[in-house]
From TrEMBL:
It comes from the Bacteria. InterPro entries: 2-MeCitrate/Citrate_synth_II, Citrate_synth-like_lrg_a-sub, Citrate_synth-like_sm_a-sub, Citrate_synthase, Citrate_synthase_AS, Citrate_synthase_bac-typ, Citrate_synthase_sf. The gene is gltA. GO terms for biological process: carbohydrate metabolic process; tricarboxylic acid cycle. The keyword Ribonucleoprotein does not apply. NCBIfam families: cit_synth_II, PRK14033.1. It comes from Microbacterium terrae. Signal peptide: none annotated. GO terms for cellular component: cytosol. Belongs to the citrate synthase family. The active site is at 267, 318. This is Citrate synthase. Transmembrane segments: none annotated.
Length: 396
């Protein structure tokens, strides 16, 4: 194997097929099960898109009503999950809370399974598990933000759909339709993105025939990093640092001189702009108008045009979603958990797809450590000598 055979970061490697989504950087498009994500974001609820990702087609009215009924039934934060979250230090990152909560939910659900041989589950079982995780995540995320603010949890409301209820549980008040709509769109745009780092992590774990919960918990860990899901949070830190539009030029001069990565820009696959950005930017614009915050739009536009002008690197979805979540009232630390609530739909769809035609994911590596060496005075025993001899025999 030569160095040129190595695909660092698996860049450009096609690892498997998927029928769940198609990212096409040439045409700047993203399809979920064949539908352009922009069309889904403008016309569908997040529940309908979750159904689409899991089942392959959009739901009819009865199917959507059934999913909504199940989702409502599992919205409550179980007392022991709340207690587990309370064990996580208040100054730990909320992604640690989410990871802990999901881990406990999995352990409880799989308790009594008996053997690791039967944890991967049937498609039916995994679909039911996926819907339950999708349903309970808003309560986990909302509770996290509220407890950090010293507020009591808010019980879910059965008369509200997913997005409106999520905001209700977070803020304890009903949000305006324009806010619910922008939030719903963001959830749809974040739901799925082919073999990104967290989804691939989930597929690697599923490929060992481990359980869906373990795969999702691993994916949460991958999403936490600032090169992936953590970037939406990092965008807000940058906005806070810059302060206002007129400071962009000098701030950028210094950041680029220090060779800093500007979070919210760049993408491994899209090199001419992220297909999700225009839809999320339009949602951000409605929020800017709703909350009367032209200063946010000015900072956003100035940083974008200056950075694109200087580096030719375009914004990714985290760039408009960070300020949008900030305007809605989410704490910066809550942004990546929001990404989890959305992406759990894509992760679980991929876990089921992986299990549907599984092959253990186990790449090779090119060794570049020291040449073979030996411990002074070591005398190989008979078994070791026999194994060494066998290794020299040609493989039949
Ligand atoms: N700021 C400054 N320079 C950048 C940036 C950026 N945001 N993105 C890429 N570059 C430069 C990079 O420094 C490198 O320059 P050089 O060749 O001179 O060393 C060149 O562009 C190629 O960058 P790379 O990191 O090798 O490219 P990649 O395809 O591996 O990186 C990326 C993709 C997302 C890791 C990177 O663009 C980045 O770190 N962006 C900031 C973090 C971010 O916004 N992440 C969210 C990604 S989208 C949401 C998601 O899918 O999770």
């Amino acid at each position: 194997m030569t160095d040129t055979d190595i695909k660092k970061g698996l860049a450009g490697v096609v690892a498997d097929t998927t029928a769940i989504s198609k990212v096409n950087p040439e045409t700047n498009s993203l399809l979920y099960r064949g539908y352009p994500v922009q069309e889904l974001a403008s016309t569908q609820s997040f529940e309908a898109v979750a159904y689409l990702l899991w089942n392959g087609d959009l739901p009819d009215e009865t199917q959507l009503a059934q999913l909504r009924a199940t989702e409502r039934a599992y919205r409550h934060l179980p007392a022991e999950v709340r207690a587990a979250i309370d064990l996580v230090p208040l100054d730990a990152h909320p992604m640690d809370e989410v990871r802990t909560a999901l881990s406990l939910i999995g352990a409880k659900d799989l308790a009594g399974t008996g053997s690791v041989l039967d944890v991967s589950g049937s498609t039916e079982e995994n679909l039911a598990r996926s819907v339950r995780l999708f349903a309970v995540l808003p309560a986990i995320v909302a509770y996290g933000q509220r407890r950090r603010r010293g507020q009591q949890p808010v019980e879910p409301r059965d008369d509200l759909d997913y997005a409106a209820n999520f905001l209700w549980m977070t803020f304890g008040e009903e949000s305006d339709a324009v806010v619910v709509d922008a939030f719903n769109r963001s959830m749809i745009l974040y739901a799925e993105h082919s073999f990104n780092a967290s989804t691939f992590t989930a597929r690697v774990i599923a490929s060992t025939l481990s359980d869906l919960y373990s795969a999702v918990v691993g994916a949460v860990g991958a999403l936490k990093g600032p090169l992936h899901g953590g970037a939406n949070e990092a965008v807000l830190h940058i906005f806070d640092e810059i302060g206002s539009a007129e400071n962009v030029g000098p701030w950028l001069d210094e950041a680029l001189a220090q060779k800093r990565k500007i979070m919210g820009f760049g993408h491994r696959v899209y090199k001419r702009g992220d297909s999700r950005v225009p839809t999320m930017k339009a949602a951000l614009d409605t929020l800017v108008e709703h909350y009367d915050r032209p200063d946010v739009a000015a900072l956003y536009d100035t940083l974008e045009s200056e950075f694109v002008g200087r580096k030719g690197i375009y914004p990714n979805l985290d760039y408009p979603s960070g300020p949008a979540y900030n305007l809605i009232g989410f704490d910066t630390l809550t942004f990546t958990p929001l990404f989890v609530a959305a992406r759990v739909t894509g992760w679980t769809a991929h876990i089921m797809e992986q299990l549907g035609s599984n092959a253990l994911i186990r790449p090779l590596s090119a060794y570049n450590g020291p040449d073979e060496r030996h411990i002074d005075g070591y005398v190989p025993d008979a078994a070791a000598l026999e194994a060494a001899e066998r290794a020299e025999e040609p493989v039949a």
